[in-house]
């Protein structure tokens, strides 16, 4: 399986062969007969990992595995109590899913075996340190939401009878003879919407294209009463105040498409995922059904007119940003509805006013003046963390060692490190107990594993929290560039250490965490300066009350009020 076109894929073969001795007699399809024993999970995870390597890196392997193993044979391992077994099972599902020609049918087969429900169970048990399983959940989320990509990039065809029938259904179910049955009542861009070409024109922009029509169709069928209520409510209002249903539905679909990042290519190593995506089937359509109602509500809160349409779109975009990027996790659609309720237009308006205050010229000038000093403070804090030292895991390709201890010298010129040192509390030992060292000026660069594409990533560099230092020891006879490999145990450690290495290379700490810290320090300092207005103006309150001036010699003066 590792041989393709007379070329051997080394990483596939080595990955498979090193696990072969542990899985020789293991049969995925007979897990229920084996029973849960202490030795079973390791065999299962090695088997799943080996098959995953074969599927990902060889087309021939994918064809063979697809014919031999069914989704049901893998899904039973997803909820295994051994987290690594679940991790490799999900990785194999992703590998098969990603290579399918008919992904819709494959996902339908997965649903028959409750894959979404099983992943939802796993999500409840995932902790921050489980970065690998988080990565595979993130990858599955990308594949799942990506099922909508083809529809989003395909415009609606006015000659397609099935697509036009969807629009016909929207009108029939929303309008009656008493309330008018003209297409104009549905809110197309064209005032009349009488012809199929005029109706299809609203769905030509891609994205969202056909996906917007599919969302509308779902909303009409699954939330018939709410859809009818919304449309009839608009018809009872002044024409200029009516919220156009079709236009708003197309805009909402586009907002969700971008918010869920469906349009982008998967970069290979990510650990962020949205629990709500796994809360129910057809989740994109359900999110649309909730958000299109939010659009209608926001429209009326803003007392919007047709000319204000783009302003309403911007507000709804901000509302979605606040919900999806908020600190509270959105686990299901009820959480989503609740989160949207606490970000009404009034709150968006309040935040915009604060933003205007922030963006005033004096504040911008003060921020520019303070930023270098506070950036230097963040940089120093990162170096202090490196001086304290940290324990890292070693990549799987390092067969001899499991842990790496590393600490920066106090003069910031040398990194001291050592492998598998026994400590009482698993913390980094003092510098004099670390046998190896690397001069900072020998470091040529830092490689973040998550930024590398799968095909270019060396074997063992499969953790999203991994990074490597490229170095060339100037005093050594061997001038070949080498790497020192780290796997951080938490996202926080990864953030601090990669930033710290950048600072050592005369760059600023600039990742997301550093930007948050810098922003927080800037806001705090600006607020303090704003409170101390008198000091800014060069004025000081006297410690004692001023003395009363003496009575003038005469009162021969007057003030001309003109």
Describe this structure in words.
With 562 residues, the chain is an alpha+beta fold. The chain contains 23 helices and nine strands. Helices cover 52% and strands 7% of the residues. The strands form three sheets. Strands 3-4-5-6 form a four-stranded antiparallel β-sheet. The protein has a three-stranded antiparallel β-sheet with strand order 7-8-9, covered by helices on one side. The N and C termini lie far apart (100 Å).
* Count of distinct strands: 9
Cα radius of gyration in angstroms: 31 Å
Structural class: alpha+beta
**Which spans of ≥5 residues are poorly predicted at pLDDT below 50?**
1-41
Portion in helices: 40-55%
How far is the N terminus from the C terminus?
Answer: 100 Å
Describe the largest sheet. Answer: 4 strands, antiparallel
**Overall geometric form:** flat
Give the strand order, joined by hyphens, for the main sheet: 3-4-5-6
Percentage of residues in strands: 5-15%
- Tell me the number of helical segments per DSSP (H or I, 4 or more residues long): 23
Overall mean pLDDT stands at 84
